[in-house]
Amino acid sequence: MSLLLTIGFGPLATAIHNWVTASISNATGALATEMVIVGISLLLFLVPLCFFLGYMERRVAGFMQMRLGPNRVGPQGTLQIVADTVKLLLKEGLTPDASDKFLFNLAPIIVVVTSMLVLAPIAFAKDFQIWDISIGVLYMASVSSISVIGILMAGWSSNNKYSLLGAMRSGAQIVSYELSVGLSLITIVIFTGSLRMSDIVNSQADGWWIIKGHIPAIISFVIFVIASTAEINRAPFDLAEAEQELTAGFHTEYSGMKFAMFLLAEYINLFIVSAVAATLFLGGWMPFHIGHWEMFNHIMDFIPSSIWFMSKTFLIIFIIMQFRWTFPRLRVDQLLNLEWKYLLPISMFNILLVTVCAIMGWYF
Amino acid sequence: MSLLGEPELTEDGEFVINIGPQHPSTHGVLHLKVWLDGETIKKVQPHLGYIHRSIEKMSESLSYRNFIFATSRMDYLSAHINNEACALTVEKGLGIEAPPRAQAIRILMAELTRLSSHQLWWGCMGLDLGAVSPFFYGFRERESIMEVMEETCGARLTQNYMVPGGIMYDIHPNFQNRVKNVLKQIKENFKEYDDLLTGNVIFEGRTKGVGYLSPEDAISYGCTGPTARGSGVSCDVRKWFPYDGYDKLQFNEILETGGDCYARYMVRMAEMRQSVRIIEQMIDNIPEGDFQTKTKAVLKLPKGEFYQRVETARGELGVYIVSDGAASPYRIKYRSPNFSNLSALEHMAKGAKIGDLVAIMATIDLVIPDVDR
Predict the structure, then answer these.
(1) In-domain check, residue A74
(2) Fewer Cβ in 10 A, N or C end of chain A?
(3) How far is B73 from chain A (nearest CA, A)?
(4) What residues make up the domain containing A229?
(5) DSSP A138-155
(6) pLDDT score recorded for residue B7
């Protein structure tokens, strides 16, 4: 029970936990209630987050392309994305006649659910975490790989040739890039000696890993950003969608809310990889501390931990968005070459390097 | 392959997909039937005719003044140069020549058209390779050229500025200043073009060695324009068969020997700079005088056959008129650059990936109404 709700966002979570256990005597019932509360608060957090990311993407794109982006609906166009969501909700969700209807409708749900599951071990602020599982990093790496099943399912069940090609591409892509993502996560695990997210954050109290871990940490940070951009199917690795080649790839046949779910999953995934990068390499919610400068560290502590976490995450989101609006797309064989011939060997060498560094204590 | 229907493979195990006629990267209603083995292309078959408007047959019932305007709708990105080709052919038949002022303005407008066409191509090239931003940067300069066009001849896309014997009316008094400003802006912005695409590692990987066309094949498929010059075939009509006084100008014919998408890309990038060079030579030296030769109200070409070729932004456009002495042509045939360039597509795309097919189509710079006419 307490495992589920170790939010402890101050005394708030404890209060809720005490209140739930007090009012519901049945242990299973209390657990279920807590789960529902967590689920609802997660949804209440995710939907505005995705609205904001969608808005941010358009404005960043507009800024990079010498245009304004949405600026008519609501103040500075902020409500544009709400209007779009209403449109998507009202649209008919077509299911093609020749498709496998069960799998076709199941696929978007799988994609969204897996991306929501991955959020569990992420520490949003000090003591603000849904599930501080002891194998946090492993859990995220393994659960996030389920989403490829949803994408393959979507492409295959649509019974559309473009969708099938997109799904096959995405299968090859996600399976390959998962290796590099995993290996670059391991470097930090080796430094920390723990897979638990809270341990990883706490280990950065005297400096973030990207600074403390110097060369190997920087290498794995760069690899992580590249590989995770590929894993979440964003340009320049958006081969599964590849508008100019496959019209819309695996989600060509989807419309209305089912399409919106793929979009939702894309933005949640974008948030997740940025949050993971921020947690592992940039200290998560941990403020910026420098060695023994007590005064400086103290001032930094005044900034709330949630702001630290969010600003680091959004910095990485901003970088990944800039990729999308700058680079051309890779070809499918170049994509696999990049992974198997460059990123994977470098990651493996980097593991060796980081192990040596960790054993010899060559880090700050 | 399909879950419910019949198997969709051919006997050789090839997967057939139809790219187009509605597709984001065919730039119009081109329909390509593609046989695939996985991602590798085994065969490409262009299906034409979706936008056939019978411009050649239609011209047989139009007068020698009117048929010119239908050609603005062929290659709509070089509308001006198409009109120029027709006007030159009729002038050849009549045995007259446009006055020097008209010729100078024709060249200026033609080079502005080439510049704007290449800018649109550059934007679309980036878009086809998956980079959205170049599209907006390409359109930025194109817009300023369009404004010059609008001020000069009242239309932005289908200009209809040429008449047999010269141009329809004189340039706007503001023309020279405006063009100079546009050129200044364009020359500054060439650097941004190179920053965004030319030096990019991914871009080079996507274009170098892709869609190779040997010089022999370029000639045998009848490729012209930047498509052939990227393979090292010298075919610039402005140099070989000068018209409207191109022989008095200083400019280079751009040749690249790579034969791949990157070479064709570099040819167009350099051609833009050459167009700027031509305009700079002309803009302060527009001769004074008439802008039109006096012609009869009803033009009648003598009995015979007349042919004139010009260099459009995409290659060589030939206009072939057969006249029986009447007030409208007996037969007209256009040799359009895109039709021949498209025929080389299958040769270039064989063995490439789907992504390469898009890149190859982008570097041929197809305009489908010019293929179908």
Answers:
(1) no
(2) C
(3) 25
(4) 91-360
(5) HHHHHHHTTHHHHHHHHH
(6) 47
Cα dihedral across residues A14, A19, A20, A24: positive or negative: positive
Indicate yes or no: CB of A328 within 8 angstroms of CB of B4: no
DSSP bridge pairs for B16: B35
Helix B354-364 vs helix B100-128: crossing angle, to nearest 10: 170
- Tell whether A246 is within 8 A of chain B (Cβ): yes
Flag if A235 and B130 touch (Cβ within 8 Å).
yes
Q: Which residue of B has its CA nearest to A245?
A: B355
User: Of the candidates B2, B4, B130, which has its C-beta nearest A244's C-beta?
Assistant: B130
Other beta carbons less than 10 A from residue A41's beta carbon: 13
User: How many other C-beta atoms lie within 10 A of the C-beta of residue B173?
Assistant: 9
Cβ B47 vs Cβ B31: under 8 Å: yes
Q: Do B354 and A334 touch (CB under 8 A)?
A: no
Task: Answer for the pair A161, B15: CB distance below 8 angstroms, yes or no.
Answer: yes
Tokens of A19: 């209140």
Nearest beta carbon to residue B133 from set A159, A243, A325: A325
A240 touches chain B (CB under 8 A): no
Q: Which residue in this structure is represented by tokens 């141009």?
A: B167
Selection from A172, A203, A171 nearest residue A190 by Cα:
A203
Q: Which domains does chain B have, with CATH numbers?
A: 52-372 (1.10.645.10)
Q: Do A61 and B132 touch (CB under 8 A)?
A: yes
Report the number of distinct structural domains present in chain A: 1
Please name the residue that has the structure tokens 């904001």.
A52
Q: Which of B317, B320, B340, B341 is nearest to B331 (CA)?
A: B320
Residue A280 covered by a domain: yes
Q: Which helix (H) or strand (E) holds B136?
A: helix B133-153
Closest-CA distance, B20 to chain A, in angstroms, reads 10
**Chain A 14-43, residues with CB within 8 Å of chain B CB atoms:** none
Packed helices A27-64 and A256-281: angle between N→C axes, nearest 10 degrees: 90
* Prediction pTM value: 0.85
CB neighbours (10 Å) of residue B293?
A: 16
State the number of CA atoms in the 13 A half-sphere of B40 facing the CB: 6
Task: Answer whether residue A159 is part of any domain.
Answer: yes
Q: Which residues contact B323 (CB under 8 A, 6 or more apart)?
A: B93, B301, B302, B303, B304, B305, B306, B329, B330
User: Nearest CA of chain B to the CA of A99: how many Å?
Assistant: 8
Largest CA distance in chain B: 74
Cβ distance of A244 and B137 shorter than 8 Å: no
Longest dimension (CA), chain A: 68
**Cα angle value B155/B139/B373 (rounded, 5°):** 55
Which residue in the set A64, A328, A332 is minimally distant from B39, CB to CB? A332
Could you tell me the two tokens for B247?
A: 């022989």
Q: Collapsing DSSP states into helix, strand and coil, what is residue A255?
A: coil
How do the pLDDT tens digits run along chain B, 373 residues long? Answer: 444 444 466 777 778 888 878 777 777 788 888 888 878 888 888 888 888 888 888 888 888 888 888 888 888 888 889 999 999 999 988 888 888 888 899 899 999 999 999 999 998 888 888 888 888 888 888 888 998 888 888 888 888 888 888 888 888 888 888 899 999 988 888 888 888 888 888 888 888 888 888 899 999 998 998 999 989 888 888 888 888 888 888 888 888 888 889 999 999 999 999 999 999 888 888 888 888 888 888 888 888 899 999 999 888 999 999 988 888 889 999 998 988 888 888 888 888 888 888 889 888 888 888 888 8
